[in-house]
Amino acid sequence: MSYVELHCHSNFSLLDGASHPEELIARAKELGMPALALTDHDALYGAVRFYKEAKEAGIKPIIGAELTVDGKYHLTLLARDNSGYSTLCRLITRAQLGYRKGEPSIEKIDLANYSDGLICLSGCGRSEIDSLLIVAKEEQAEAAAQQLREIFGDNFFIELQNDLCPGDSRLVHQLTGLAQRLGIRCVATNNVHYAVKERQRLHDVLVCIKNRVTLDKSGHLRRPNAEFYLKSASEMTELFTDCPEAVANSLFIANECNVDLDFSSYRFPDFPVPDGETTESYLARLCWEKAKERYGELSERVREQVTYELDLIKKLGLSGYFLIVWDIMDYAKRNGIPAQGRGSAANSIVAYVLGITKVDPIRHNLFVGRFLNEEMSSIPDIDIDVSTNHREQLIQYIYQKYGEEHVAMVCTYVTFQARNAIREVGKVLGMPAGILDEMAKAAGSYSARDIDQDLGKLEQFRPYITSVPWQHFVSLCKEIADFPRHLSIHVGGMIISSCPLTDIVPLERATMPGRIVCQWDKDGVEDAGLVKVDILGLRMLSLIQETVELIKEGRGIDIDLERIPLDDGKVYDMICRADTMGVFQVESRAQIQTLPRTRPRSIEDLTVEVAIIRPGPLQGNMVHPYIRRRQGKEKVSYPHPRLKPILEETLGVILFQEQVLRCAIAIAGFTPGEADSLRRAMSRKRSKQAMDKLRQRFMEGAKRNGVTEATALRIFNTLKGFAEYGFCKSHAAGFALLAYQSAWLKHYYPVEFYAALLNNQPMGFYTPEVIVGDARRHGVEVVPVHINRSHGRCTVEDDRLRLGFRYVKEIGEAAIAEIEKARTRAPFTSLMDFYQRTNLSREAIENLILAGAMDRFDKSKRQLLWDLGILDHCGRGEMMLGYPQYQVPLPDMTEQEELSAEY
Question: Other CB atoms closer than 10 Å to residue 7's CB: what's the count?
């Protein structure tokens, strides 16, 4: 007899399921199951991943969920078809948004309104029916079952589970009797929480983490045995010998469930275009108009590239996508919001002429195949960097433009990695916190899968490595690797759909107040064919805008950074001296050591500089050969003559992802799509079989092009070693432009630049104290906080940099607002005047005194602190009669004491 498991939890039942979806599918395939259901708690987090993996394994994926009803009961729902899938999404959304964060639940009455296309199983031992039977309330149990049958009709089944727990056999007998009396069919499930029974240990640990208890105190919280694994048809048949039809019905239900998770037809909202236009014609008209604005007289190369890309965009059906992103950027431009596209989108001339990106792909010889090609299977990413101060404004525009039902933030799954795996697993096992902290700090690897190697290097733990408890601990840490622990908001991803998102994916509250996220991460969104736009806050854009505004405010000069010369020798001299504190992307210690040796003299050189201090070139041993060749100490050579045009700009060294693609095209005759697929495959962990297949395709192509086997293999291995960490040239070019602009502002307008730099902390590598020191070295006069002149932020005052209140400890936004409000009536004339007119704490006022904010009152800091003590003793509102008599002569602070007080 065949059997299909219809009640199965993956690790996306957070801190409850103890197997990855892939592990469950692999085990189901071993057991010969034709299908498998995923029914995680109140969520579809793993649905796309499960669906995709099951399809590849040749197993039918059944999408479902175990929902919480009335805050306490469980109910299993399975989607029969796409209509049922949408119903399930809406129900889960209702559960997540209708209750407090972390406590999702629907009301039973909701089921009457949301039942189309769903199959309902009565649920596990925590279902309403089971709970009533356990306490001998048979009539109420029958009424509950009858109510569900009225809602779901023949799509309602009584769910039987026998996990060999005390009372299971009796409960199964009661349930089958109830089903017979009411004429309802039964189905057997096993309430699966892990693929194999050996994972019970890990499940116990997860339950303890969830409930914040140690293993020895978990008691009834843990399941009583290891029977909650994927069982074979024979095992299930043996468990239900008295009700074989319950096992057979699992196959019947599986055959009824047919869901297709391809949502590519929903991916673009209808973009409004003028009458008589299509999205294709409107995009083309915009491009040609704006190309003339960008380039003036269009060269043949520009015309050819625009035509080629427009044809490709039309063929791929992406015209609406480009218009959506153009509209977002156009809004930013119209509202003075600094924003620019980043990443591979900068390879596109269409993105450039539309103002989405700032980098000219013609000038920089960029390769559009990295961004767009005929073989691409997913929507290309266009990430938008926006001033941190304006990010929320841009996000709200997208919500308003397309409607809250059509827009949501993408989630990200915070997973167990080396350090938190060590700490959380160790805590459950009762290990001392100090030892766990020592272990966690020693974990050099990001992944918990490698902690045995990391911890094995610690001398103090070597005697324990062969012990059973140690191996038990390490094994659990490795098993929990990459398990999702909780959800967070993706750094910038937003999903936009033509239909209400709740038809496609459930939504839930984020921890951030007022923010709603979808239950899929970026990979799930991409695999489902939906549109994702990344809106990423970039403080450097805020800094640059503020610098330009300060220049206009103080000097009356309008700076258009798109028109400044990109070949200013003085700016490059400053960069070559490594005088780059505060300059975007080239201020790190590694960059400071490299700049005097590479000596960039153009924006192209700066593009290389941005890309070279990265994991890829460093791990691939590309940095030192490039520097030696740049200095003329090593002859420039190429792996093959065909690669000279591709690698000439980087002196024969592979530095950019685009070069990987072009090398594959030149050597092996790959198409742009094949080359990008090769890059993607190389940049992810693929099976040996998959890499062997790619290598064979590469070697065969190279042979046809007359490249020797040894040379081809050497090139392939070089590409493979680099691709995992390589930097996108178009991304580097965009960052290089920001690096140059920030360097130009620092060189010509240092006062305004440093004021903006201080106002946009934290950013970069240096503390405010170090930045102030650098400003002074550049001749900037930095003056202290002034009680009557300073504001919250640093300001430019008579060509001097005036520090702001935000750099005084204990002075927050509320205190700043109070000071400024009181100051509007009249300037402060004394410490007593300030004390009486504000309500700041003594500590806050002390810090203002120590920072020099009250030096204008013609008293030493010591005297002011003495006076503050008297004022604080008397209290606010007192007339302070006789105040002068308390003054005593106090010595001034020494220079060292002044310095210590300020910091």
Answer: 25
